[in-house]
Amino acid sequence: MPNKNNIILFITDQWRWDTLNDPSNPARLPNLQNFRDEAVKFDNAFTTVPLCTPARGSLFTGRLPHQNGTMDNVQGKAFYPHGKLHPDQKTYLERLRESGYHVAFVGKWHLGDGTLQDRGIDDVVLSDGGDVPLTATGDVTFSETRKSPYYGTITDGEPLDGIRVDNAIDLLPRLASSDKPFCLVVSLHAPHFPHHVPERYVALYDDLPKDYVPENWCKQFSEPNKPVAQSRPWHEVHDTSHMSANDWRRTAQHYWGFCSYTDALFGRFRTAVSQAGLTENTVLAFTSDHGEMLGAHGWFDKGPFFYEEVMRIPMLIRAPGQINETRQNFVSLHDLLPTLINCAGGDIEPDRSYFNTQSDAAFFVYDAYQGRQFRFRGIREKRFKYAWSPHDLEELYDLENDPAERINLAGDPIHTNTQARLKNRLFDWMGKEGDWLSGPAHHPPVGSYIDGRGSEEQHVHPALGPRS
Asked: Is 182 in a helix, a strand, or coil?
């Protein structure tokens, strides 16, 4: 396979688009900004679903959650601790291996304990896809001030992601010397909560205002005309009523500190790629599975909604022979691997490549969270975003006049035609994708459990520990 380039995907978890693309964002990311200046930037890149397992299932199979079966989180202490991506859902990693690539995977998999190795991917390092638990952490020491599971300052020791990147660097000489092209996935936990960050990176943000909150922060659940799905916490970490102004500021410090720490890891990794002589024969991409609310609308983490903070993701691709540019076509996470494979000289589903499509919209899905049922579908065009549910309020946002998505215009007579047009376009897409929600069906109440329990019950997550 002499004409195939190598593929490296460097993927993070819960990384916001604005950290790299909004000049007003406080995040200090010199290495990624340098990479951004050399890469193709997809300004309108979106996750398929703002939840880890479904997003990753879509990324690695190229199929939507209702098509591959990964509609809720698996592993760890979630509702599906022993779940996994079904064996009959072939991933692009397996397809690459079958086409002659050596495939290596370092870090977070989140699609079933040990199931990367079950699929014949043997070069697996520090991953729950191999023999390391999803919730594994590095051997670190914290300062006395800590608010778990929100933030904690590390005073000694290396987080697991740093060890993962060191292991990925150690792999590069062996991969470079092989007579096969390779695909290497470096998948980090950062900057997903808990934000456990070395103190020197937290200190980068000591200059944040004492009263810092995002512009669209509000007391949680106080916004009018929002869906029932946004009316209460569905996970213990969602209840932010205990958060003081200083807690929000410290959480932001640690989140951006986590991003800066990861930026340093990426810089170290990219230097190693260059030293291994791989720069000119390797496609290198940086992205995330979804974003993070970080106080927007009063929420922490993510949830059953399609706000920009969790939907929009960074998407940077540097391929040999490509010029750096900014592209405005709308692209989705589940088309990323076909894009990288075609950039590397492969011919797997070339019609899905970001470089061969000119879509002016992105489509979103949401089905379940922590065993609870939430059925939402959405469409995002340049100006308007529309979300529909068979058992909840519709949403319509004018992103030009209301970029913070505070005012739900659904039902407003002035926007009747826009709402109808977007709903029709969304349902056309759902029909083409074989989405069962596009037809008649019984839908249980929002937030109810798949095992029949009502929405009023709270699933307990003992692994989270005390808040402070």
From this structure: strand
CB 376 within 8 A of CB 426: no
Q: What are the C-alpha distances in Å from 339 to residues 96, 321, 343, 361, 367? A: 13, 15, 6, 18, 26
Q: What CA–CA distance (Å, rounded) separates 461 from 456?
A: 16
CA atoms within 13 A on the CB side of 173: 4
In DSSP notation, 109-157 reads --SSTTHHHHTT--EEES-TTTTS-TT-----EEEEEEETTTEEEEEES
Residue 314 φ/ψ region, left for φ over 0, alpha for ψ in the -120 to 50 degree band, beta for the rest: beta
3-state secondary structure of 229: helix
Distance between CA 107 and CA 127 in Å, rounded?
4
The count of other CB atoms within 10 Å of the CB of residue 373 is 20
Q: How far is 190 from 11, CA to CA, in rounded Å?
A: 9
Cα 346 from Cα 388, distance rounded (Å): 37
Domain 6-360: top CATH class: alpha beta
Backbone angles phi, psi at 288, to 5 degrees: -145, 160
| Phi-psi map region of 393: left, alpha, beta (phi>0 left; psi -120 to 50 alpha) | beta
- Say how far apart CA 19 and CA 305 lie, in whole Å: 20
List per-residue pLDDT tens for the chain, 468 residues long.
Answer: 447 999 999 999 999 999 999 999 999 999 999 999 999 999 999 999 999 999 999 999 999 999 999 999 997 566 777 889 999 999 999 999 999 999 999 999 999 999 999 999 999 999 999 999 998 999 999 997 889 889 999 999 999 999 999 999 999 999 999 999 999 999 999 999 999 999 999 999 999 999 999 999 999 999 999 999 999 998 888 999 999 999 999 999 999 999 999 999 999 999 999 999 999 999 999 999 999 999 999 999 999 999 999 999 999 999 998 999 999 999 999 999 999 999 999 999 999 999 999 999 999 999 999 889 999 999 999 999 999 999 899 999 999 999 999 999 999 999 999 999 999 999 999 999 999 898 887 888 899 988 888 888 876 655 444 444
- Domain chopping of the chain, boundaries: 6-360
- Which of helix, strand or coil describes residue 55? helix
